[in-house]
Amino acid sequence: MESEENISKTHPLQGKKPAKISLISNRNIFNISYPIFLTLIAQNIINVTDTAFLGRVGEVEMGASAIGGVFYLAIFTLGFGFSQGVQILIGRRNGEGNFSQIGTIFNNGLIFNFLLSAVLFVALFFSLSGLMDFLVSSAKVHRAAVDYLDWRIYGLFFAFANAVFRAYYVGITKTRVLTISAIITALTNVVFNYFLIFGTFGFPELGIAGAGMASVIAEGATFLYLYFHTQRNNEAKKYGLFNFEKIDLKTIKQVLDLSIFIMLQYFTSIVTWFLFFLFIERMGERPLAATNIGRSLYIVLMMPGVALSTTVNTLVSNLIGAGHKDFVMPFLNKMIKLVLVLIIPIMIFTFAFPELFIRIYTNYTGLIADTVPIIRVVSIAMIFFAVSNIVFSALLGTGNTRTALAIDLGGMVFYVLFIWYAAIYNPQTTAVVWLSELVYWIPIGIVCYWYMLKGNWRSKRI
Fold this sequence. Notes:
Layout: H1 4-10, H2 26-55, H3 59-96, H4 100-135, H5 139-152, H6 156-171, H7 177-198, H8 208-232, H9 235-239, H10 249-281, H11 285-321, H12 328-352, H13 354-358, H14 365-397, H15 401-425, H16 430-434, H17 436-454
């Protein structure tokens, strides 16, 4: 990599003071993004394998895993949202060179997320069955979803901790460790899914409950790797990691000032997506099963965009911390072009050959036919998601999380109204209901980009 001195002399955007252009070089973007991408692959192998294996069990189980999976994701976003505040703050301190604060942020982030996961676990342990009974109309889907979640909620402890580890490594822009964690997550989940869903090699045949148990084992194995790797690393001493002598309420409040709006934004976003599946469930078990395949593939196709948007978030925070606000918009425009180059070829291939992907999940001819239109809508929606999420993540990286929440809530109003109209009030095909993704992401992208151009984020201090 070129030295900062050489880059600052030759970069066309250079102003009066030297700029840390190496931070946003193609090489650095790749070095940060690809381990995140691999981590996302691992996380989504859980989703894909759960759906693919359960597709061989039955349509009810496949549909129930959608309800259970999105419900779990809604709960997880509370811990993940807090970790995003940790990531932004660590990124800012890393950019400033204020390394002594990184350990304090990390340690208190772990403490808070552990306590939060414990509270949520206890609440769900006692209320899960009644809650699903209230939300789900089909008795079969209700029973299967509860069977899945009864095990899945134990993973909250590991998942919330893993989110803080991820925030730490992304915040300091050293994400290669996430590659190995991704492999551990993926392999563990695939193996135990096979063992526990179908009852192979002497394991009990648990069906959908086995999918929930396998996910917990995968998250636990990932936590053990991240904990022992981080503890042995020299930077653990440099930053003062795992020093739990006292809880620093000031630091937790500082993180919460950033993350509370992200937590609310993520939670409300996933809750509205959960409503999407509840509305689809009222259309029948076949539309729900087809929608679960669409959801699974959509999440997989999101991965390049999500990896790049996470990179945008941390590099915007690092740039601002290093005093280079003038480079934020050129960097953002560069990332939008990059994500389009990656996504458009994938979109064309997915749109042209949807059955190729659907057969990963099911061999049922009728279900395949009903899923094809959904996949074509998903392939188009993916482009708008990728671009808008890049811009939205840049806004989060500036620390203006209150503004991000307000924009997102506005988008969700249109989203919920559209799915209610298309699924309940004036029922349309399932593919038409999926157009709600365009209704949501297009306005979000436009408003966020306008704010990055004209908003007051340059004066924000955290």
